[in-house]
Write a structure and sequence with these properties.
The protein is of the alpha/beta class. The protein has three domains: 157 residues, Methylthiotransferase, N-terminal domain (Rossmann fold); 228 residues, tm_1862 like domain (pyruvate-formate lyase- activating enzyme, Alpha-Beta Horseshoe), CATH 3.80.30.20; 53 residues, Nucleic acid-binding proteins (OB fold (Dihydrolipoamide Acetyltransferase, E2P)). It contains 14 helices and 19 strands. The strands form five sheets. It has a six-stranded parallel β-sheet with strand order 2-1-3-4-5-6, with helices on both faces. β4, α5 and β5 form a beta-alpha-beta unit. The longest helix is centred in the C-terminal third of the chain and has 24 residues. 41% of the residues are buried.
Length: 470
């Protein structure tokens, strides 16, 4: 797909800017301030999208709030990856009938991947009549246009037509952190794993132009951000379809060359496209974090084939060996699905043995959730939820023991960390490998790199003390 067919023109973005200005004039004419709430479910890409939604709302004159009862506009950015997230969204949307009743002019909007699923817009239209606006990820850039029309004319808008997706540059953002920033480099996915709804709701792969990515990265560094996370459903596919010959490793090198003291992270990396060029580039680039999130999903070759993952167990293990040869200090995390349709006890044991062999620093573990419209949703599945839960519990117990052991090995070492926030009595910080370190100190440390001696650990975190020279 040519990038020229997917990029929204500067003229169209300027048109949305005019809609924002007109909305701001309406809001300014009110006797009282207008408030907006954006609530986000799902992945980091959704978080990045919500930052743009907040940016547009602020440009339109709204003050951000976390109180649904106070909000004049509520935007719920939804996730379709698992059934549990869907049920939470629908439950919370249903509860908003009370805020809408108390505040009849309140505008409730639903967006994100869940809205792009077949039949979902019709369900919202029929059963959640207090919702005024429904739109998919492909038209997020048109949010000012939709909201202005609702402010002027009322009614309901549903914008969820099927699309391969677009790229819209130049939208404003209000970021959640002054230290860490999401930096999308591409959108969509071409992998079509048999269990995954993402390609169906976010469209085909499309990469941002490297110049646009680099310009945004420079702005973030100049603004003081210290931790940039490059986002894509499969960052290793970056560059396909671009006029310029550039791949993800090339992009990493170019961002690494930007002056400043900052870390580069990325997710997610698909094993079918990871390889020696990526690992050697990571090892060579001093700003690239020593962490890779490399989902393996199953340790069974049969299950991997049924998942349409395009690699084998041995392929994955070979990648891990190669990555650790280039970066012996690499922190490795992964995703795994328990209870894929037809997965036998022996095949689950293959997953356990892979976890033991690799020794992941952390795992994100999920019980299979069927998604309507994916091949896996119609596969025979003879095992009960209770059987899957028992397997899941075994996997979690195994990984917790591995994580606890790996964290204990940090005790006594000195780590360079980025202090990124506070949780209660502790400051929070992260090592280059992304390990959470809790320490005591003043808020003035937030946003700085510090040397910390690790004094304690548990399954989920490390504890440290600032070195005297800091």
């Amino acid at each position: 797909m040519s990038i020229s067919r997917t990029v929204i023109s500067d003229g169209e973005i300027a048109r949305q800017e005019r809609f924002m200005e007109e909305a701001a004039e309406l809001i300014a004419s009110r006797e009282s301030p207008a408030y907006a709430l954006v609530d986000t479910y799902g992945c980091q890409q959704n978080e990045a999208d919500s930052e743009k939604l907040r940016g547009m709302l602020v440009r339109m004159g709204y003050t951000l709030t976390r109180d649904a009862a106070e909000a004049d506009v509520i935007v719920i950015n939804t996730c379709a990856v698992r059934e549990h997230a869907e049920q939470r969204v629908l439950g919370n949307v249903g509860a908003l009938t009370h805020t809408k009743k108390a505040k009849p002019d309140q505008i409730i909007c639903l967006c994100g991947c869940m809205m792009q699923q077949a039949g979902m817009a019709e369900k919202i239209k029929a059963s959640y009549r207090h919702v005024s606006l429904v739109f998919g990820p492909h038209v997020l850039w048109r949010f000012p246009e939709y909201l202005l029309k609702l402010l002027r004319d009322g009614g309901r808008i549903f914008a969820t037509d099927a699309s391969d997706g677009v790229i819209a540059e130049g939208l404003p953002s209000v970021r959640d952190s002054a230290v860490k920033a999401w930096l999308p480099i591409m959108y969509g996915c071409n992998n079509f794993c048999s269990y995954c709804i993402v390609p169906h709701v976010r469209g085909r792969e499309r990469s941002r132009a490297p110049g646009d990515v680099l310009a945004e990265a420079r702005r973030l560094v100049e603004a003081g951000y210290k931790d940039l996370t490059l986002l894509g459903q499969n960052v290793n596919s970056y560059g396909k379809g671009l006029p310029e010959t550039v791949d993800f490793s090339d992009l990493l090198e170019r961002i690494n060359a930007i002056p400043g003291d900052f870390l580069i992270r990325f997710m997610t990396s698909h094993p079918r496209d990871a390889g020696e060029k990526l690992f050697s580039t990571m090892a060579r680039c001093e700003k690239c974090a020593r962490h890779i999130h490399l989902p393996f999903q199953s340790g069974s070759d049969r299950v991997l084939s049924a998942m349409n993952r395009h690699y084998t167990r041995e392929d994955y293990l070979a990648l891990v060996r190669m990555a650790r040869q280039y970066m012996p200090d690499l922190v490795l995390t992964s995703d795994v699905i328990v209870g894929f349709p037809g997965e036998t006890e022996e095949e689950f044991e293959d997953t356990l043995s892979l976890v033991s062999e690799v020794g992941f620093d952390a795992l994100f573990t999920f019980i299979f959730s069927p998604r309507v419209g994916t091949p896996a949703a119609s596969m025979p599945d003879p095992f009960t939820r209770e059987e899957k839960q028992r397997r899941f519990d075994r996997l979690v117990a195994l990984q917790n023991a591995v994580s606890e052991k790996r964290h204990a090995a940090y005790v006594g070492s000195v780590q360079r960390v980025l202090v990124d926030g506070r949780e209660g009595e502790y400051l929070t910080s992260r090592t280059s490998g992304g390990r959470l370190v809790r320490l005591r100190g003043g808020d003035k440390l937030i946003g700085t790199f510090r040397s910390v001696e690790i004094t304690g650990s548990n399954t989920w975190a490390l504890y440290g003390e600032l070195r005297e020279e800091d």
